[in-house]
Write a structure and sequence with these properties.
It is a single chain. The chain has 7 helices and no strands. It is mainly alpha-helical and 178 residues long. The protein has one domain. Helix 1 packs parallel to helix 4 and helix 6 packs across helix 7.
Length: 178
C-alpha cells in the first residue's frame, strides 16, 4: 500500500533531505566534525533508512531500491570509491531487517540496532578504503579517532530525530488514501 499512502511523498523527500544534510552539516560544521585527530561522519541517510523500516506501519516501503539509489547519489557526490555506498546502504537495510526480526519494535532495540548498523557501516567503509589505499590509519586509531566520535554523533542524531520522525510517519501512515 506504499503507493496509496502519504509515504510515497514523505519517504523520498526525507531521503533527499537526509542526503543533502549529510553533506551540508559536514561542510558547515567541518571544524567540529574533523578536528585533528578526531573525525566524525554524519550518517543521516542511514538514520532515515533504519527509522523508515521501524516506522512504516505495515506500509511496505521499497527500502532496498531507495537505498541503492541513495548510495549511487552518495557515491557520485561525496565518496572516493564508486559503488561503495551503493552496496553498503542496501546491506545495512538488510542487516536492520534481520536484526529487527529478533527484537520488538520499540526505542531501545531500535537504538541498539542503529548502533550495530553504524559500527558495521563505518568498519566496512574503513576496510574498503584501507584496501584501495585511500587510508593508511591503523585499525586501533580508526576505532579511537573515527568510529567512537562517529557513533557519538549518530546516537545523538538518533536521540534528537527519533520522535519527530516517528510523528511524521504516524501522520503519513494514518490515512491510506491521498
Amino acid at each position: 500500500m506504499y503507493r496509496l499512502s502519504r509515504l510515497k511523498y514523505v519517504f523520498p523527500i526525507g531521503l533527499f533531505v537526509s542526503l543533502f544534510l549529510d553533506g551540508a552539516l559536514s561542510h558547515v560544521w567541518a571544524p567540529l566534525f574533523f578536528h585533528f585527530p578526531y573525525s566524525m561522519a554524519s550518517e543521516l541517510v542511514l538514520l532515515w533508512l533504519v527509522l523508515s523500516y521501524f516506522f512504516e506501519n505495515g506500509v511496505d516501503i521499497p527500502l532496498i531500491p531507495f537505498a541503492i539509489a541513495a548510495g549511487i547519489v552518495a557515491d557520485l557526490y561525496c565518496s572516493g570509491v564508486l559503488g561503495l555506498y551503493m552496496v553498503l546502504y542496501p546491506c545495512i537495510v538488510a542487516l536492520t531487517k534481520v536484526l529487527a526480526h529478533y527484537f520488538s519494535d520499540s526505542f531501545l532495540p531500535a537504538i541498539m540496532i542503529f548502533f550495530v548498523d553504524i559500527v558495521v557501516f563505518a568498519t566496512v567503509n574503513y576496510f574498503a578504503y584501507y584496501m584501495v589505499g585511500v587510508t593508511s590509519v591503523g585499525f586501533g586509531d580508526f576505532i579511537i579517532y573515527s568510529l567512537a566520535p562517529t557513533l557519538l554523533l549518530n546516537v545523538v542524531y538518533f536521540l534528537v530525530f527519533y520522535w519527530p520522525i516517528q510523528a511524521l510517519y504516524s501522520w503519513a501512515t494514518s490515512e491510506k488514501t491521498v
